[in-house]
Amino acid sequence: MDATATIKEAAGMAILKSSNKQPELALELLTRTVDALAAGQQLSTPAVEVPATPMQGSIIDIQA
Questions:
Q1: Which residues, other chains included, contact 37 with Cβ-Cβ below 8 Å and sequence gap of 6+?
Q2: CA 53 to CA 61: how far, in whole Å?
Q3: Which of 6, 7, 44, 51 has most Cβ atoms within 10 angstroms of its Cβ?
Q4: pLDDT band at 62 (very low <50, low <70, confident <90, very high)
Q5: Cβ–Cβ < 8 Å for 16, 3
Q6: CA-to-CA distance for 47 and 28, rounded, in angstroms?
Q7: Residue 40 phi, psi dihedral angles, 5° rounding
Q8: CA-based angle 64:26:15, to the nearest 5?
């Protein structure tokens, strides 16, 4: 297993075990970012746009 695959696997497991409500999106962001870095690209913007969603129990949810 090369270094890129090792990073993806370790970070992917951490994301999936976290309380993130969108683990698939977080894993996709990580995968695209690691692939771009492995290809030698300089990243100035995220590889994937992450939609902004209110956190459960936030002021927005409580007032709704």
A1: 43
A2: 11
A3: 7
A4: low
A5: no
A6: 9
A7: 85, 15
A8: 105
pLDDT tens per residue across span 47-61 = 555 555 555 554 554
Alpha helices (H) in the chain, listed in sequence order: 3-17, 23-38, 59-63
Residue 45: pLDDT band with limits 50, 70, 90 = low
Token pair 């970012």 is at which residue?
33
The token duo for 24 is 């698939």
- Angle at 30 (CA atoms; ends 27, 48), nearest 5 degrees: 95
Could you read off the pLDDT of 28-38 as tens digits, one per residue? 777 777 777 77
Which tokens is 21 given? 């409500």
